[in-house]
Amino acid sequence: MAAAAYDAIIVGGGHNGLVCAAYLARAGRKVLVLERRERIGGAALTEEVFPGFKFSVFSYVVSLLRPEIIRDLELPRHGLHILPLESTLTPLPNDYLIQWNDHDQNRRELARHSLRDAEAYDEFGLMLHQMARAVKPLLAMAPPDPTSLAFGELLGMKRLAEHFRALGAKRFNQLTKLLTMSSAEFLDEWFETEALKATKSASGIIGTLLGPRSPGTAYVLLHHYMGELDGVFRAWGFAKGGNGSVSAAIGAAAQAAGAEIRCNASVQKVLVSYGKARGVVLENGEEIRAKLVVSSADPRRTFLGLVDEKHLPGPFLESIRRFRFRGSSAKVNLALGELPDFTCLPGRGPHLRGAVSISPSVAYLERAYDQAKYGEPSSEPYMDIVIPSLLDPEMAPPGKHVMSIFVQYAPYHVNGGWTDARREALGDAVVNTLSQYAPNLKGAILHRQVVTPADIERIVGLTEGNIFQGELSLQQMFFLRPVPSWAKYRTPVSGLWQCGAGTHPGGGVMGASGRNAALQILGAA
Amino acid sequence: MNRAIVIGGGADALVAAQVLARSGREVMMIESDTGLLDEGWVPPKVLRELKIEGLELRWPEPWASVPLAAGGRLELSRDMARSVESIRRLSERDAERWPQFCERMARLARFMEKIYSAAPPNPLDIGFAMQARRLGRRGLTDLLRILPMPVAELLDDWFESDALKGALGAAGVLHLLQGPRSSGTGLRLLHYHVGCPPGVFRAPRSNILEILRRMPRVELENTEVQRIAVRGGEVAGVVLEDGRELEASVVVSSAGPRRSLLELIEPGWLDPELARALRHVRRRGVAARLRLQLDRSPGFAALALAPSLDYLERAYDDAKHGRVSRAPYVEAHCDERHRVEALVQYVPFGVESSQLQEKTIALISEHWGDAQPQHAELAAPRELEQFEGWPEGQPHQAELALDQALWMRPHPELAQYRTPIRGLWLCGPAMHPGAGVAGASGLHCAHAILGR
Questions:
Q1: At what angle do helices B80-88 and B92-116 cross, to 10 degrees?
Q2: Cα pseudo-dihedral B196, B199, B201, B207, rounded to 10
Q3: Which residues of A touch B286 (CB under 8 A)?
């Protein structure tokens, strides 16, 4: 048998694979990253889709990227520069709601809608902040397995129980409520302004095929709040140069630490002999040996694609097969000749430099979900919009703009399957809905790119186009992600590890899975 | 004054009263005309404590008859072999999986029975963790996965037949303003399986109320409580409708947490934060009740009109947007005297439902052959509130949703039956294990009072 050429091969050059590679390389391991596509980045990618117009084709904002990763890998030195998004505008038929990062400005605006909500907002923010702090240590943790009697796992559970106990009864109760409630009902307890509740609860449905009234979505809301922590960068931000520069910075950090990155290197199989991973075989037949193989591909691609089933136990395979993806989001990227002019807030104000959320009411979001449940894309979808060219002029030619529209719901399992006609119909629905609020939009569009869940699957390789590598629902979280008893980045095949968002704590350009996996690997050796 | 007053006449209140009386207290029950449910499993602990004999748990046989679009019925029976035969006509694969599914669910239900036989567990308690471990690795994994899961996903994992999934999925949403694709409905499939033989997923009825009512030792008064008197943060007694004040050092209320703490006591005694939390305890009624008399047997004991999970989900969609389901889920039970009682879901509280009676009868009548209705009466949630005293028409007083279950039922600060008013205690369907388990919350509450 040929000697291992590398200590570790990372399958997939998305942000988690790169984070894992960087941490391993920094610890002195000889690491090779294999990326199927012609460039690294996975779903964190910038591409000049139309001449002069650059887009973060898939993921489009940063906020959840763990501050410890930014620090450890010195990402700013490798080119990461985050520009804050200062506001979120929710246009309404005859009015608008705008949430500002600036406290006083935000309070004045909220008071215009409801004095009560303006009063409650600070307390709400404090509570969420406390909850986020309570959950934060869990993000950096390899989840202990409550079903195991192994000493290490028992110790892990004991530490976890101690962590929760230390929160005190009141906060622990709040946390369990937050974990089990729906985002809409959770917000009903705090606010009365419909647009505020809808816009906030929308962050609870991202990446799932659940409506805002389904329990479990309150946690996803908290998951998205996690970024507003730590004081590294507040709220949501936009990476200068698009989200491709996030991957580029992490890739550069990995290379600086000695990792090797190969693009156009599609892994066909993980080599397994005598129950141990020995390396990989590329599609062109090339064999590369390594002591460890770490897959950043999602659980289905890893275990039902890269590894021969005969190496995996039956119950494990059964659990992998029922792991749910159900991609529900799409992207529409527009090249614009002029800025959108919102009827409710005309002109080129500071509001255009922030996010725009099409979420006028919870019922609106639920109606959008209703269609998706039965296999139809929402005719009036929820949208989260940013205009990156206002923050970073290099994204578009002078005087022109790019607009990034996150769209939900666009179910992967659409009736009849995704076709070109379906894709264009989705693009039309998005433009038509948005034009109700900004009538000049239609005339301003120079080019349009529509990315359906099927496209995400085809291009990036995310199963069913799920942006989190698997739904972030309660039964697929923490020690259940992706499979009970295998949530600690290990797999039933010795020497094969997983480090994608399909593992704890999940997606959102967090990088936590990649880091946690690397720390586990280093701890195990 | 060593008197205890128990408000309400349900199984939980009766059990609490009996346990307190047997400990040597003078107990008085104030029973109003609230509609009572004789639904639910009675934990053996209750039977032992009160030395109850002759309890009969009744399930219709078959417990669900589901009409099939292609004609005929799916019949789910207590008899495993008969169910399997009936399922086989729909799907060979489902028939093969049925016994295994029943075995896995029954195992979890036995565990839930233990949890229901005591006050709510503390999830951080090591004892609870050890108890849960006895389920074994697969059992514990199943439990942790299923409790927060949408019942639809659980059933999709196991079965392919729409009719089977519809009948089972209905247990996930009974009396709940959620659809089968909402998270947390998996818990409810287990909840309605508790105390049942393997393969039965509906709460039984029983003669527990009759038995408890026949028991001596407790003074009964049939009237309404106007308010609970509080002095110095401590309960002092109750004031009745007619103005009489009865002194007591202990008051146990089964009138529901919101009513007991926000309406029956004077404002000001509660911490505003708790008062706010109580106002957010959800108790939205979603089911109407149709009663009718037939002239002959309709040919079913329990008819379930829930042909698929999508059917249930669409019925919920209407309710979610504030409408009565255009095609409602109906579950009709018929007794030996040909009296039919049907649950019609979803009918949101306070929503116009004038055509519902005719529509429901038309729906059921397709399946009762030549029988003729002689008398029919439909009560929507608003009427159920008015006549049965169920706030917002919800018989469970607090929806059994994931965030209002176990140690969060109805709210974490009240889950141990104790209230911030010294001497005032809570039991009833809104308290753990609540809704669909008879007598248990009364027992746990009384034990908490007696410091056992």
A1: 140
A2: -30
A3: none
- CB pair distance less than 8 Å for B149 and A474: yes
The one-letter amino acid at B2 = N
The CA distance from B250 to B256, in Å, is 17
- Contact predicate A193/A229, CB 8 Å: no
Pairing of strands B302-305, B329-334: antiparallel
**Collapsing DSSP states into helix, strand and coil, what is residue B39?**
strand
Tell me what pLDDT residue B262 has. 96
Inspect the interface and report whether the beta carbons of A215 and B149 lie closer than 8 Å: no
CB contact under 8 A, B157 and A363: no
A110-to-A105, A115, A194, A204, A349 alpha-carbon distances in Å: 9, 7, 12, 21, 18
Name the residue among B15, B45, B57 with its Cα closest to residue B206: B57
Query: How many C-beta atoms lie closer than 10 Å to residue A234's C-beta?
Result: 15
Are residues B412 and A173, on separate chains, in Cβ contact within 8 Å?
Answer: yes
Select from B146, B148, B193 the least CA-distant residue to B168: B193
- How far, in Å, CA of A501 to CA of A373, rounded? 24
Residue count of chain A? 525
Nearest Cα residue to A243 out of A457, A465, A395, A378: A395
Which among B145, B402, B413 has CB closest to A215?
B402
Which residues have CB under 8 Å from A310's CB, separation 6+? none
Q: Is A215 in contact with B182 (Cβ distance < 8 A)?
A: yes
Beta strands in A12-167 (DSSP E): 31-34, 46-50, 53-56, 82-84, 87-91, 96-100
pLDDT above 90 coverage of chain B, percent: 86
Decide if A22 contacts A253 (C-beta within 8 A).
yes
Nearest to B184 among A173, A215, A484 (CB): A215
For helices A115-139 and A217-225, give the axis angle rounded to 10 degrees.
80
Structure tokens given for A399: 């005087």
Cis bond before residue A96 (omega within 30° of 0): no
pLDDT digits (tens, 9 = 90+) for B85-120: 999 999 999 999 999 999 999 999 999 999 999 999
Write the CB contacts of A222 (distance below 8 Å, at least 6 apart in sequence). Answer: A128, A131, A132, A135, A178
CA distance A170 to chain B (A): 8
* CB within 8 Å of B399: residues ≥ 6 apart: B175, B176, B177, B282, B283, B284
Task: Write down the pLDDT at residue A525.
Answer: 62
Q: CA–CA separation, A192 vs A196, rounded Å?
A: 8
Structure tokens at B155: 């059933």
Amino acid identity of residue B412, one-letter, is P
Share of chain B above pLDDT 70, in %: 98
Query: Which has the closest alpha carbon to B191: B267, B115, B258, B280?
Result: B115
Tokens 């489009």 found at: A60
Side chain identity at residue A66, one-letter code: R
Q: What's the rounded Cα separation, in Å, for the pair A221 and A239?
A: 22
Q: Do A90 and A199 form a contact (C-beta atoms < 8 A)?
A: yes
Q: Do residues A340 and A440 lie in contact, with contact meaning Cβ atoms separated by under 8 Å?
A: yes
Query: At B432, which helix (H) or strand (E)?
Result: none
What is the token pair recorded at B24? Answer: 């040597």
**Which of A146, A161, A177 has the CB atom closest to B140's CB atom?**
A146
What's CA A152's distance to the chain center, in Å?
A: 30
Q: Which two tokens stand for residue A458?
A: 């085809």
Give dist(CA A499, CA A19) in Å, integer. Answer: 9
Q: Which two tokens stand for residue A110?
A: 């909220």
With an 8 Å Cβ cutoff, is B69 touching chain A? Answer: no
Q: Which residues pair with A406 in a beta bridge?
A: A331, A384
Higher pLDDT, B262 or B126: B262
- Calculated CA dihedral for residues B441, B151, A370, A410, nearest 10 degrees: 130
Cα B36 from Cα B9, distance rounded (Å): 8
Q: pTM for the complete prediction?
A: 0.94
